[in-house]
Specification:
The protein has 187 residues and is mainly α. Helix content is 64%, strand content 10%. It has a domain of 109 residues. It has six helices and three strands, in the order H-H-H-H-E-E-E-H-H. It has a three-stranded antiparallel sheet, with helices on one face. The chain starts with 7 loop residues before the first helix and ends in a 9-residue tail after the last helix.
Length: 187
């Protein structure tokens, strides 16, 4: 079966859906930076530790790390609010990333087709008439919400000093490596 080229409306939907995926990837990268900062470890170590983890696994790790006694309560509360706001956006991200899409009931809209079995109970979405559908504008609204959360996370990371922390850890690692025996001489 041939796939037809997308219409202009479909191109707009696809662009907005791509923005949702890209912004969520930025948020997950920020979560890894926050893990490094809260845990007082280097970025490389954080990446190795989280390389095979999903958002669903990173969130409780961050909740635990941000509640340490060494983290001021106000900072922990601010971070928890950001995590809650990220969590609110995961449903649309997961639909965009994993659903098959079909025509919605409104002009120029699509709705997700999904099938899952959790705890032995089948669940389907997208087969009934009045289910939620999305226009390009709806997807852009969701992308805007994700962009706002991603910006707040980025601001938090900067305010918490996590970027400086990562640079310091990289310098420490570099100094350790350069002091190892067998280092080539500069002569």
């Amino acid at each position: 079966m041939a796939i037809n080229p997308p219409t202009e409306s479909e191109k707009e939907q696809l662009a907005a859906m791509g923005a949702i995926i890209t912004l969520f990837a930025r948020i997950e990268s920020g979560m890894e930076i926050a893990i490094a900062g809260f845990a007082d470890i280097g970025m490389w170590t954080a990446i190795v530790m989280t390389s095979d983890t999903t958002y669903r696994q990173k969130r409780p790790i961050l909740q635990t790390l941000s509640q340490q006694r060494t983290v001021p309560d106000a900072r922990a509360e601010k971070f928890e609010k950001i995590l809650d706001d990220v969590h609110e956006r995961t449903k649309i991200r997961n639909l965009v990333a994993h659903a098959t899409w079909t025509k919605g009931r409104r002009a120029g809209s699509v709705k997700p087709l999904t099938h899952s079995i959790r705890s032995g109970k089948p669940k389907t979405q997208g087969h009934r008439q009045n289910e939620k559908d999305y226009t390009a504008s709806d997807f852009w609204d969701e992308a805007t919400k994700l962009r706002e959360v991603a910006s707040r996370l980025q601001d938090f990371i900067a305010e918490a000093g996590f970027i400086d922390h990562i640079h310091r850890k990289m310098s420490e690692m570099s100094a350790t490596i350069s002091g190892l025996p067998g280092k080539p001489s500069s002569k």
